Amino acid sequence: MERFAVSPDIVGWAASAILLATLSRQIHTQSKDPDARGVSKWLFAGQIAASTGFIVYSWLLDNWVFIVTNAAILVTAMVGQVAVARKKR
């Protein structure tokens, strides 16, 4: 029986695209919330810290899928942090 060969990078990039689409949709939804009371400031602080750590970790492993993905996740966390801060003012 012949194995179906799938590049690990293709799987990684596809998973990355799904995750980033999900996070982008969440930021869009939060931007429509008039007061953002249900969003904890610690969510974004933790996400920023974790993404920064994962970028360094991925760089040390020379894994570009995760470097790019975590850099994009870091950007979504920063955008979310700014959006929620503006809503809570």
Structure notes:
It is built from 3 helices and no strands. Helix 2 runs antiparallel to helix 3. The chain has helices at residues 8-32, 41-61, 64-88. The chain is elongated and about 60 Å long. The protein has one domain (8-88): Up-down Bundle (Monooxygenase). The chain is an all-alpha fold and 89 residues long.
Task: Tell me the strand percentage band.
Answer: under 5%
Question: Which topology does CATH recognise?
Answer: Monooxygenase
Please identify the top-level CATH class. Mainly Alpha
Cα-to-Cα separation, first versus last residue: 62 Å
Number of domains: 1
Helix-strand makeup class: mainly alpha
Low-confidence stretches: none
Radius of gyration: 16 Å
Q: At CATH's second level, what is the architecture? A: Up-down Bundle
- Could you give the order of the helices and strands? HHH
Oligomer: single chain
Determine the fraction of residues in helical runs and give it as a percent range.
over 70%
User: What's the rounded overall pLDDT mean?
Assistant: 83
Strand runs, count: 0
- What's the tally of helices? 3
Shape: elongated
Largest sheet descriptor: none
Protein name: PQ-loop repeat-containing protein
Organism: Luteimonas salinisoli
Keywords: Membrane, Transmembrane, Transmembrane helix
Question: What are the main properties of this structure?
Answer:
89 residues; 0% strand; 3 helices; mainly alpha
Topology record:
Layout: H1 8-32, H2 41-61, H3 64-88
Helix pairs in contact: 1-3, 2-3
Transmembrane segments: 6-23, 43-60, 66-85
Protein name: PQ-loop repeat-containing protein
Keywords: Membrane, Transmembrane, Transmembrane helix
